[in-house]
Amino acid sequence: MTYEEALNIYTDGSSLPRPRRGGVGIRYIVINDAGDEEWQDDCPPGYKEATNNEMELMAPVLALRGIPDEMMTSNIERIIVFTDSMYVRDHLFRATVVWPNNGWCNRHGKPIENVKLWKDLVREVRKAPKRVKFKWVKGHGTNKHNKAVDKLARESANCPVLNEPLTVQSVRRKLTSESVEIGGVKMDGQELDIRIITDKRMREQKLWRYKYEVLPSDSTFAGKVDVIYSEILLRAHHSYRVVVCDNQNNPRIVELIEEIGQENIEE
User: What residues contact residue 153 under an 8 Å CB cut-off, 6+ apart?
Assistant: First the structure.
């Protein structure tokens, strides 16, 4: 679908594994005086270690930031950004008017991820030369423009020279064979022996975000991999005995009991 008297922008983000990297694809489309579509594509270098959500946000940020002057002709009355990301579609309103007033946390107090990118997107929408509207388009469908930006996003992720990661975090390989399961470790105010896999500073909320695995023990969650937040500074590749909260909607480490020696733990 392409609208007349509008700058139509199709965007997509991708994240590829081994090694993890992400990319963005952008297509600008206008309808010319003859009623035909004209478009320009953009496939900037991608980013090391990027998640899919980061790239789905970065795609419209870069698209709005880089609108070609020649595409903003005098008959353009609005800008329509197409995305197949439900993450963007479902949360843009909250990022604009709700989360900034909640300290960038949701209604349960759980910190919001990718705050800087959300702020960048809201800023670019407000700075745009015309009013911006987002429309969701089904991914992997028959829309030729959405298929084109999906291909561009993969090419972007596979650029020989990539940008540095958008998020700085320490990463260590997990020991367990299990995959991350958000909410897999129940928060009952219990003690847990855990090993930190990644540590990431969430500056806006003044918290740390940890991906962790539960160490072999008598816990029913031994081997599970999950995500938790805390004001307490811990480090990737280190193991700790901690106390967690009793709020499943806002998982937190509330007390550090001790660091556990790792001389018998091998990667």
Answer: 12, 13, 14, 23, 24, 25, 55, 59
